[in-house]
Amino acid sequence: MTVMEQRGAYRPSPPPAWQPRMDPAPLLPDAEPYRVLGTDTAAKADPDLLRRLYAQLVRGRRYNTQATALTKQGRLAVYPSSTGQEACEVAAALALEERDWLFPSYRDTLAVVARGVDPVETLTLLRGDWHNGYDPHTHRVAPLSTPLATQLPHAVGLAHAARLKGDDVVALAMVGDGGTSEGDFHEALNFAAVWQAPVVFLVQNNGFAISVPLAKQTAAPSLAHKAVGYGMPGRLVDGNDAAAVHEVLSDAVRHARAGGGPTLVEAVTYRVEAHTNADDATRYREDDEVETWRRHDPVQLLERELTARGLLDEAAIDAVRQDAEAMAADLRERMNQDPRLDPMDLFDHVYAEPTSQLREQRALLRTELAAEQDEQEGDPR
Amino acid sequence: MTTVAVKPATMAQALTRAMRDAMAADPAVHVMGEDVGTLGGVFRVTDGLAAEFGEDRCTDTPLAEAGILGAAVGMAMYGLRPVVEMQFDAFAYPAFEQLVSHVSRMRNRTRGRMPLPITVRVPYGGGIGGVEHHSDSSEAYYMATPGLHVVTPATVADAYGLLRQAIASDDPVVFLEPKRLYWSKDAWNADHPTDVEPIGRAVVRRPGSSATLITYGPSLPVCMEAAEAARAEGWDLEVVDLRSLVPFDDETVCASVRRTGRAVVVHESTGFGGPGGEIAARITERCFHHLEAPVLRVAGFDLPYPPPMLERHHLPGVDRVLDAVARLQWEAEN
Prior knowledge:
Strand order of the largest sheet of chain B: 3-2-4-5-7-6-12
Low-confidence stretches of chain A: none
Order of helices and strands of chain A: HHHEHHHHHEHEEEHEHEHHHHH
Strand order of the largest sheet of chain A: 1-2-3-7-6
Distance between the termini of chain A: 104 Å
Helix content of chain A: 40-55%
Helix content of chain B: 25-40%
Number of strands of chain B: 14
Mean pLDDT of chain A: 95
Order of helices and strands of chain B: EHEHEHEHHEHEHEEEEHEEHEHEHH
Number of helices of chain A: 16
Structural class of chain B: alpha/beta
Number of helices of chain B: 12
Oligomer: heterodimer
Strand content of chain B: 15-25%
Distance between the termini of chain B: 41 Å
């Protein structure tokens, strides 16, 4: 009998029964970004919290304009403004407890400041006197990460380690829309979900990765939808609504702390300024679009809500602005002083114990510095 | 020299023992990687660790090298001492960004406030008949990254001693395991491992006076064999085992070359842009007036690692080392 003749009698065995590992429906984000301000939900929000958010928003806005001014004075090499995104920054910091950790990316200086770090120390990287200005352990803030999404697996590892040690610490990791295309984004979310690590991922979708719009970044229905593929909930929130971002992040933090595992939050926002002062945003977007978003301003949204509810009056607004102005004045004054640099620092933190090669190079630099000083002092040697 | 009669042990067993002892001594030590738990690693180097210390201490991770090393960074930030396995040399490449952009720099970036005590175990090199991506020698990439220590044992005693030191180090260490020496045996007492020289020190494995062979890891046995064979030619070769590529032991290497006046650097990785160029330059800068011949390199050819049926033509063997030594003699006589 030939193979062809046998074929009629052949009955393939059915594949083993397959079932999805979980129902994906509860993980899916809402169809619309969640909002609080201007809705009935706002009435239930804690007035003190809203006022704190407002004060931080105003400070954040002022910090952005001051830092941008410092680039024009040549005090900063570059500054990536987060104007328009202040609600995400402030909510990120205020959603955490003191023992929690924040993992910011390079645009997230406001979250770092709102966490309590000295504003001058957050600008060290951009001023160029050292790569990181603050002690990460003091306020539990990791260094601002310049490579995209690479800090996300750090957040997962730290949260995992904390849980192994029995500490109820949560890590909040921030990334932009462009960063979601990076491999480390995928690996971090996957590790977090498999390990059920207490991590919250906050994607600030500000529309552009420098000049590349979201449509060229991803084909997903939303960035929050990506969560489902990892087996974690995805939440979509209006990133300019400080109360909404705070509520969604706080829920996610509580969920993580209670052992519920990670959440991916996408905050839909907009970068109304250029990527940095070195970028020309008019080459890749229309003024109309920018104007539309400027009218959906996070500071104004909250200010109007608070004023309408009688939670904020002119005097209170003035007080908040004066506080922000004082912060800016202090920042300006301290940033306009030349930092004191010790070139010998170059060798002190490469290894716990310098190698013999580094000791030789250190000695060389010391000789060069001594010669420089002699020259300045007019020593004929 | 200890003369305790002991059962021969393999390098793989010594590495396992080192992790086991480190984990027993310090609860902060965590082993992680693909297949390191239930399976005990594809080379069985982590065999038994998950059973003894639990899956939280010896963890099978998702298959993602950047994720493994990236998570280890966060764990180290929180006070743990992760020991990560990269399974095979070329599998470590996805983790390069984490290694170069974060692991190597975190101490420096934070002015010493956030050191990362991470050990990255990378089984490396050829000679085991591995298919593509299973035999690379990537040490030059690691050496070119400031902030990393790069070590590689060639003896069973060093496998244990150097790995314990790497795990105890407050700085990141790339620990290169010569996989073709995993099953090499040595008289070594697992219950009373003797101390070895610290990371950063080279060791003279065989004293000699005609020329110095400078080598490490998988090429050490090749050089020892070459030195024995060279006796027939009347050459008395000294063999220096570097053990540590970063920090580099200029002192031991240069003292040897000054004695012998001739040097050959032997390694598997490519010659062009490889470790041998750096080593030859360092010797030339420091020992020029003691040299009676140019410093020569015997290295793998400058090609992607060859398929297993051709790898014996690529790997520097005893004959190629002896040819180089012969050229040293010729250079000296003319």
